[in-house]
Design a protein that fits this description.
The structure holds two protein chains of two kinds.
Chain A (H helix, E strand, L loop, with lengths): L8 H7 L8 H6 L8 H9 L2 E5 L4 H6 L6 E7 L5 E2 L1 H14 L4 E3 L5 E6 L4 H10 L16 E2 L6 H17 L6 H6 L29 E4 L13 E8 L2 E9 L18 E7 L3 H15 L10 H8 L1 H12 L19 E4 L5 E5 L5 E2 L7 H11 L3 E4 L5 E6 L4 H10 L2 H6 L3 H4 L2 E2 L17 H14 L9 E4 L13 E7 L2 E6 L10 E7 L1 H18 L6 H7 L16
Parallel strand pairs in A: 6-7, 7-8, 16-17, 17-18
Antiparallel strand pairs in A: 1-2, 2-5, 3-14, 4-5, 4-13, 8-9, 9-10, 11-12, 12-15, 14-15, 18-19, 19-20
Chain B lengths: L15 H8 L4 H16 L22 E7 L4 H15 L3 E6 L13 E7 L8 H11 L10 E7 L9 H12 L3 E2 L4 E3 L4 H14 L15 H4 L7 E10 L9 E7 L12 E5 L4 H11 L6 E4 L2 E4 H7 L8 H10 L3 H8 L1 H8 L4 H7 L6 H7 L6 E4 L10 E7 L2 E4 L2 E4 L1 H9 L5 E7 L14 E6 L4 H13 L5 E7 L2 H4 L3 H10 L4 E6 L9 H7 L1 H9 L3 E6 L1 H20 L3 H13 L3 E5 L1
Parallel strand pairs in B: 1-2, 1-3, 3-4, 4-5, 4-6, 17-18, 17-20, 18-19, 20-21
Antiparallel strand pairs in B: 7-8, 7-16, 8-13, 9-12, 9-16, 10-11, 14-15
The chains are: A alpha+beta, B alpha/beta.
Chain lengths: 568, 596
């Protein structure tokens, strides 16, 4: 339905790539540069990796007559964020051997390795494979890692919902053999046996843009399901999983200076029983495959497709393709989108420990040796590790006899203290990677937010708000990796040291925020937030969240739909 | 000479043989120049017109011996001295001809009357490639007796090497054994050879009994006086200084850009730029502390009276210790251990390694006057660095690639005198004292269409930057192939961005890299040569020139072996035959080394 000549450049690259091969093999083998050929930089994303440079060194190296220090971020898919201790140990090893010695736990429950050199890509990916992990579709115009609430309190329900997330993930994983051919010496993945290169769901040009699916079990919205192309809310009946309420058309990204681009929350369209949920996801994906904008990547996400054709029109097409009607949505209630830290016990008697991981970065610092501690725990832990959608970590299904030992290990390395001695503001904070490796970043995020929080914590404590969860989220650009438009305090980088301040999102992930001030530097951020926090401390209603308070007090108007996000 | 016409009708008075004798072994370049010269003579009308060489004054033929000045040169210094000797002889009205040992047949010696021989010595006492055959011939049973020959030898060398001037000594000894008579004693020259060489020429020519210089045509002084040299360096400004290694590298390499504006200093890619360093204040301080001498103590050096500290900082070698210094020092020192050391070659080598002047003074303290100290130490030589630029690409600039030498030895941090002078004490805007050291042979092929293979490791890539720039600027048709090695790809790919551009534009046809520490197995440039053996051989067979620049010990020998193995594989011949092929390339000056 689109005119070939108007297709975006990436569409041509995909078309000519022979199911994501392109000239990646030659690119990787070229010893004269640490970079790939330009076309292949698009294709490598489908294999889970972005080519990046160390932006701190770009100008220095140019002067040194060296090319930029190219390296690769590799995102390992972990459906539902559940990893075994063996997988954890493997990722820890690979981080030391081929990456920068740290693991990044992302806002989509994946592991990211940073700083992998081109010549080590294949070894690294083979390392994932040996632990039954992969990075295919970690990035690219396909369905990305499927998220599932970490839910330490609800073991049985979690198990059922997690099972569905794995089914969706498997169903929507690209079928091309290129990944195995390029990185794994042609050996088929142990759990998959692709016969020949066809993509029954995607076709040879895949989707127009990335696609995201998340599942949540109320009252926890820790996966921020409304920020996804498809959000699935588990509905429990008589103690068992009955099915899911389905929401479609969420997405965070926008572009500064283009008011036609906007963040948007997913619209609830109804309920489907568990048995139909994979089918529903597939059909939404195929409509987007056929109807999505392939000329301008800034308008390619499902959210723009829905706003173009109208929600009713889209749902009608969906039901047509499904061959059955979607039932009316069932009642549900979310209470929070952040994590509940500390120990929890589920009905089956198992123990779960949710740990704070600042910026999602698993590393050793002088004060907290998180990486070493988790390595030790992984050595004897018999349950699993669950990466949360808030960049934190649940040590899940701990057998009761391990509780003391885990506490000792974590205490010895300063980890427990790091969880308990922090303000709720810091514990709920999210930051994307941004500088120095992300090519899109205008400003710092992960490296800088802790510093800003040191100053904000002082304000928070001065106003007796240390235990009040206020969602603060910072990104280095407006594309939204840390879901900044769902922050009760959203800070979006516009230039080095300058941020736009957004206020008024709901604590439950059900309302977007709104622009409050532009281009603030650090002093400006403190200056603007201090009186608001003081007022919140004094004038809030019982149990009133900060995001609701600023709207009630008239600091910003409520954003009721993505399309009025930019309205004052 | 394939370029000579063979079947054309020749003008009056010439036959084919005469012509052939006249043009001798002139290169195409020389023939071209001569054609212009003779035209100039013709155009100036009859008579002895303005000739570039003075006409020899009439001397009775009977009394006039025929002198051959035979040189065996590696870098061109021997050739330079030989040409000066010819000039000096001609000024005395003598008949002298310079000949390159590379093109000289051993049996021609029997016809010589007077032989002045200039030859350098390489690393471990071996002759330069150009002198190898003659050296071997003279030592063989085939060497003729030479009772009628009168000769003298000038040996060029570096006193810091154990086998100082060995090749010169060999020639002297062998000529003497064959019955030849020494005109004047052999002179062994250190790095700073100019003055000794002039004295040697004078002594040898005096001995021929033709002491009077030809009065009529006293000429302008020898060429080198006009040139910038050790005692007459050019002062240039540092325009740019860049550390080329990325962060985290174990290497420390600097790119320096110097301004030649207004100086009229010319160089060609392949030449070196010598830099006159000063010693670090810390090292001068060490020496003063060890000797307990005052910084201001007045000392005499080459007719000047200067404070000791100044002489130590600017005029004397402190950062390396050489055999000659230790020998002189032993004379002042009573310790028998030191005298023993001076006499025992192997122990001496071990002792000298990694030690500097301060170490010697601390290890064997002696009561020494400031003047004795100055007389014991050797002059501070300039350090030569291969030029890394082409004047065509960077008019009025000279670029250098300098690796800082630092290591811990014998309880102190040691630093290369000049490399660390440039690394630590010279900044943009500062003045440097420099002069060009011509590298006679390490040059691009005259034929722009000839292909070249360049093998460079570490800072050894420097001259190839100049080569490729020069060939790119000239639009040379020949293909350029670079093989580069260093420890790490991300930090040590010197001039990476420039090579990538050349490769993209085709001014580098092939580029292969070896980063030794990026994988478990160490990979070096010679491994890459072997990987591409067939192509290397095809290029050589097709007339390619092969250049090597870098470390003498580690690079030159392994590349030589690799090339022998390349030839052996390709031709299916014995190692000896392959070795002969490679030696042949060296003799044809198609396999050229700039190693240090």
């Amino acid at each position: 339905m689109t005119n070939q000549s108007q297709l975006s450049e990436v569409e041509h690259v995909k078309e000519a790539s022979n199911y994501l091969r392109g000239t990646l093999r030659e690119s990787v083998q070229n010893p004269l540069t640490g970079a790939l050929y330009p076309d292949d930089t698009h294709l490598i994303k489908f294999h889970g990796s972005y080519q990046q440079t160390d932006r701190d060194l770009d100008s220095e190296r140019k002067r040194q007559k060296l090319e930029p220090l190219y390296s690769f971020m590799i995102r390992v898919r972990v459906p539902g964020g559940v990893a075994t201790p063996a997988q954890w140990l493997r990722m820890d090893d690979l981080a030391d051997e081929y990456a920068n010695g740290t693991l990044k736990l992302t806002t989509r429950q994946t592991f990211q390795l940073h700083g992998v050199l081109k010549r080590d890509l294949q070894q690294t990916i083979q390392g994932f494979n040996a632990a039954l992990l992969d990075s295919i579709a970690g990035c690219g115009d396909v369905n990305r890692n499927v998220m599932c609430g970490a839910n330490p309190h609800e073991s049985e329900l979690h198990a059922a919902v997690y099972e569905v997330s794995k089914q969706i993930s498997a169903h929507l994983t690209p079928q091309t053999t290129a990944y195995w051919e390029l990185w794994l010496n042609g050996e088929p993945h142990l759990s998959t046996e692709p016969a020949e290169d066809t993509e029954p769901i995607y076709g040879k040009t895949y989707l127009p843009r990335k696609f995201k699916i998340a599942l949540a079990v109320p009252p926890y919205n820790d996966t921020d399901i409304f920020a996804n192309d498809i959000g699935l809310i588990a509905v429990e009946e008589n103690g068992a999983l009955a099915g899911f309420n389905v929401a479609i058309g969420g997405g965070m990204g926008m572009t500064f200076g283009m008011p036609d681009t906007y963040p948007r929350l997913a619209d609830l369209i109804g309920f489907v029983p568990t048995a139909q949920v994979v089918d529903v996801c597939e059909k939404v994906v195929t409509i987007q495959r056929d109807w999505g904008n392939r000329q301008n990547r800034k308008f390619s996400r499902l959210k723009y497709t829905i706003d173009r054709v109208g929600l009713d029109g889209f749902v009608a097409e969906l039901q047509q393709r499904l061959g059955y009607e979607i039932q009316p949505a069932r009642p549900y209630r979310f209470a929070m989108s952040s994590d509940a830290f500390g120990w929890a016990q589920s009905a089956d008697g198992r123990l779960h420990l949710t740990l704070f991981v600042e910026g999602g970065r698993v590393q050793d610092t002088a004060a907290v040796q998180l990486k070493t501690a988790l390595r030790e725990v992984a050595g004897f832990h018999t349950g699993e590790f669950r990466l949360t959608g808030n960049q934190n970590l649940v040590v899940a299904n701990i057998s009761p006899q391990h509780r003391t030992r885990i506490e000792q290990v974590l205490a010895r390395h300063g980890v427990l203290n790091a969880t308990t001695a922090r303000t709720a503001l810091r514990l709920g904070a999210l930051a994307c990677v941004a500088l120095n490796t992300c090519t899109l970043a205008f400003a710092e995020a992960e490296r800088y937010l802790p510093q800003l929080l040191d100053r904000l914590d002082a304000v928070i404590r001065a106003h007796d708000l240390a235990n009040e969860g206020i969602l603060i989220r910072m990104t280095g650009c407006p594309n939204g990796c840390a879901r900044p438009y769902l922050g009760e305090i959203g800070l979006v980088g516009k230039a080095v040291g300058r941020y736009n301040l957004y206020l008024g999102a709901s604590h439950r992930g059900e309302r977007l925020n709104k622009l409050y001030r532009e281009m603030l530097d650090e002093d400006g951020i403190i200056r603007e937030l201090t009186p608001l926090l003081a007022a919140y401390s004094q004038h809030r209603l019982p149990a009133e969240r900060f995001g609701d308070f600023v709207i009630r007090q008239g600091y910003v108007r409520a954003t009721t739909h993505g399309q009025n996000f930019h309205a004052a | 000479m394939s370029s000579l016409p063979t079947d054309q009708r020749l003008p009056i008075g010439f036959d084919d043989n005469t012509l052939r004798q006249l043009v001798g072994d002139f290169s195409e370049q020389q023939l071209l120049w001569l054609s212009g010269y003779f035209y100039g003579r013709y155009a100036a009308g009859p008579g002895p017109a303005a000739a570039p060489e003075p006409a020899a004054p009439p001397v009775a033929t009977a009394a006039r011996p025929r002198i051959t000045v035979l040189y065996g040169s590696q870098t061109g210094n021997s050739k330079k001295v030989a040409l000066q000797a010819v000039e000096a002889a001609r000024q005395r009205g003598l008949d002298a001809t310079a000949r390159d040992m590379n093109d000289y047949q051993g049996r021609e010696l029997g016809k010589e009357q007077v032989l002045l021989l200039v030859v350098s010595t390489q690393g471990e006492g071996e002759p330069p490639v150009a002198a190898e055959e003659l050296h071997r011939f003279l030592g063989s049973a085939r060497a003729p007796q030479l009772p009628a020959l009168r000769y003298s030898v000038l040996a060029l060398g570096d006193r810091s090497y154990l086998h100082f001037c060995q090749t010169g000594r060999d020639f002297d000894e062998r000529l003497s054994k064959l019955g030849a008579t020494a005109l004047a004693p052999r002179v062994d020259c250190d790095l700073d050879f100019q003055a000794d060489a002039q004295q040697w020429m004078a002594a040898a020519l005096d001995a021929l009994g033709q002491a009077t210089p030809a009065a009529a045509s006293v000429k302008s002084p020898p060429v080198e006086v006009k040139e910038y040299a050790r005692h007459h360096p050019l002062t240039v400004e540092v325009l740019e200084k860049i550390q080329l290694n990325g962060r985290g590298s174990t290497k420390e390499t600097y790119h320096l850009e110097l301004s030649l504006a207004g100086a009229g200093l010319q160089y060609e890619p392949g030449d070196a730029l010598a830099v006159v360093p000063t010693n670090s204040a810390a090292l001068v301080e060490e020496v003063l502390r060890a000797t307990q001498l005052g910084a201001d103590a007045p000392v005499q050096l080459q007719g000047e009276t200067l404070p000791l500290a100044t002489v130590l900082a600017e005029r004397l070698e402190l950062s390396t210790l050489s055999r000659d210094v230790l020998e002189r020092y032993a004379r002042h020192h009573p310790a028998p251990r030191l005298r023993e050391l001076a006499g025992a070659t192997e122990q001496l080598q071990r002792y000298l390694y990694g030690r500097d002047a301060a170490d010697l003074l601390v290890d064997y303290p002696a009561e020494l006057s400031a003047q004795q100290l100055v007389d014991t130490l050797r002059p501070l030589p300039a350090r030569a660095y291969s030029l890394a630029s082409s004047l065509l690409a960077h008019p009025d600039e000279a670029h250098l690639t300098v690796g800082a030498v630092r290591y811990d030895a014998h309880g102190r941090r040691k630093q290369g005198a000049c490399s660390c002078y440039l690394a630590d004490r010279v900044q943009v805007g500062d003045q440097l004292r420099v002069f060009v050291e011509r590298n006679e042979y390490f040059k691009l092929p005259q034929n722009p269409d000839a292909n070249i293979i360049m093998v460079g490791a570490g800072t050894g890539v420097a001259p190839f930057r100049g080569f490729v720039e020069e060939r790119a600027e000239r639009g040379a048709g020949g293909l350029n192939w670079l093989l580069f090695g260093n420890p790490h790809f991300t930090t040590d790919f010197l001039y990476q961005a420039e090579w990538q551009q050349h490769f993209k534009r085709g001014t580098l046809a092939k580029l292969h890299v070896a980063f030794s520490r990026d994988q478990a197995a160490k990979i070096y440039v010679h491994n890459r040569l072997l990987e591409h053996a067939r192509e290397v051989y095809d290029w050589l067979e097709n007339g390619a020139y092969f250049y090597v620049c870098g470390d003498r010990q580690r690079l030159a020998a392994t590349v030589h072996r690799a090339l022998v193995s390349v030839v052996q594989q390709a031709q299916g011949v014995s190692p000896e035959a392959a070795e002969a092929y490679v030696r042949g390339l060296k003799k044809q000056r198609r396999y050229l080394e700039d190693v240090y």
